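Q: How would the structure tokens look for this protein?
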Amino acid sequence: MARPDSKTTRILQAVAASVVPETAGLNSAGWSALERTVAAAIAARPPNVQRQVRLFLRAIEWLPLFRYGRPFTRLDPRRRERFLASLQSSPLLLIRRGFWGLRTLILMGYYTQADVIGAIGYRADPRGWSVRR
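A: Here is the predicted structure in token form.
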């Protein structure tokens, strides 16, 4: 999947702000890094999975219209969280998987940034525990 378009970026940012509230403090470079990480992870998947992710993001944007009268990106934070909680606990396995997959991508995009790693004190090293001693 190529870099997301502006509509997809707005939806992704709105979901990210609910999933990881700390993303509100990201500057443009931080958002770009998050989006690049997510786009790279999605690009590694087959084309049908890439389409499913795009479709799921569009569904997240427009499904709240039926309940709240507004698209997801125009909801207040409390309603966004309520809507995402309904996806998270949906009786439909496909919806739950879609939400948890998107959530995982967002967490990966945020927590793999060097500034964030330093801020939370993460000190893991690919060479293993012996490096920390």
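The two ends are 41 Å apart (CA to CA).

Residues 6-132 form one domain.

Upvote if useful.
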